[in-house]
Amino acid sequence: MIKYIEESADYLQSKGFENPEIGIILGTGLGQLVDELDIIKSISYNHIPNFPSATVEFHKGKLLYGNLGGKRVVVMQGRFHVYEGYSLQEVTFPVRIMEKLGIHTLLVSNAAGAVNLKFKKGDLMLIDDHINLQGSSPLAFKGVSELGERFTDMSAPYNPELNTKFETIAQENDIPLHKGVYASVVGPQLETRAEYRMLKIIGADAVGMSTVPEIIVANHLGLKTAAVSVLTDECDPDHLAPINIEEIIAMATKAEPHMITLFKELIKTL
Ligand code: HPA
């Protein structure tokens, strides 16, 4: 793994990805943050050595380097999911590359279903904690100790100071921002009514198919992390309407301006 990480990072450095400070992973329907970015370099995932190759068509699959809010950032335009057939190590490989390039902070966005029925579709939720329901760990491999502490602490995986900053920015900009627990499932099928009931009982406020592996690896590497979900559907087991992926993407896109403000303003303070 170390050799692969170095190879990919060396390649990106040779292409001008120099000393980024912050890494950003853009989730489904949240790609417009890119319009705010002063792009210096852009490389397709399939040109980066050892990178998993992008599959799902609505993910553009590019790594960008540029300036945002006065900071040097590296941005994943599209992420990898376990439901696409990638291993948890592949899904999180880009986080290891971004850390090797020099980032100290990782910011993540995603689309999620609202399990907490006080939350409505189109709302944003700051992730305060998570429940990993993906059945394994991105740290469950032989060489993990060479890259960081195997028994990674998870007492505060989402940086409390970053979260406080997000909440202040939300208040200052009149952006409603819930705070809650995100549960990650494999997908790609959505949940049954019984599964939504279970998620509520075990303490989840939102459910999605990403983010948790990336956050685990970011903590393994000692990065500061924060993540925001856009809630795209309401997971009410007693009145469950069929949903489709187009609707989810449309809802994510609608909430995009608020998400962009939160990220841009946070980055200015880092
Ligand atoms: N479940 C899982 N993933 C999701 C959902 C959901 O309801 N909405 C958006 N991503």
- DSSP, total strands: 9
Span between termini: 30 Å
Kindly report the average pLDDT value.
93
Question: Main β-sheet: number of strands, strand sense, barrel status?
Answer: 5 strands, mixed, barrel
Question: What's the total helix number?
Answer: 7
For the CA atoms, what is the radius of gyration? 17 Å
CATH homology-level superfamily = Nucleoside phosphorylase domain
List the ligand species. Answer: hypoxanthine
CATH class call:
Alpha Beta
**Which spans of ≥5 residues are poorly predicted at pLDDT below 50?**
none
Strand order of the largest sheet: 5-8-7-6-9
The outline comes out as globular
The structure class reads alpha/beta
Query: Which architecture would the CATH scheme give at its second level?
Result: 3-Layer(aba) Sandwich
Number of domains: 1
> Which percent range fits the helix content?
25-40%
According to CATH, what is the topology? Rossmann fold
Q: Order of SSEs, N→C?
A: HEEEEHEEHEHEHEHH
